[in-house]
Specification:
mainly alpha; flat
Length: 140
């Protein structure tokens, strides 16, 4: 699963070391306080909270935006912390989003106070954001 690679990037080296060296279990509240999970809810409310959050995402964001955010945030974990790549990728996405298929529909839905009717975009057909040779240090 890559815990020794992923966890330090999510919660820091100190908390990762604590968890991996001791092997101790943490409560949901402690996991939330250390940033390991988004929030902690009582077990009886878990599915209701998961459905509420899924509904909020589904109704509040276009499927394309969700796909891009997931790809960029988790993909960012793989770019070895190269800030220039993140900046160029973010710039490319913002430029594309303002002229992409969701821009007009999102604005219209907002001003008309109605749910948006998003255009279906295959995530595999999105542009290759931030893949230009833009390293200020001259490397790839």
């Amino acid at each position: 699963m890559g815990a020794t690679w992923t966890l330090p990037r999510l919660i820091g080296i100190e908390k990762t070391s604590d968890l991996l060296l001791t092997g101790r279990k943490v409560s949901g509240k402690e996991a939330a306080s250390m940033g390991l999970v988004l929030r902690s809810v009582p077990r009886a409310q878990l599915m209701d909270e998961a459905r509420r959050m899924a509904k909020e995402i589904a109704e509040g964001s276009s499927p394309t935006a969700v796909s891009i955010v997931k790809r960029m945030t988790w993909g960012r974990m793989m770019d070895e912390g190269e800030l220039y790549k993140a900046i160029y990728e973010d710039d490319d996405v913002i430029g594309w989003a303002f002229s992409g298929p969701d821009a007009a529909e999102g604005n219209a839905a907002f001003f008309e106070k109605r749910p948006a009717n998003w255009v279906a975009v295959n995530p595999d057909n999105l542009p290759d954001f931030g893949k230009r040779n833009a390293n200020p240090f001259g490397k790839g």
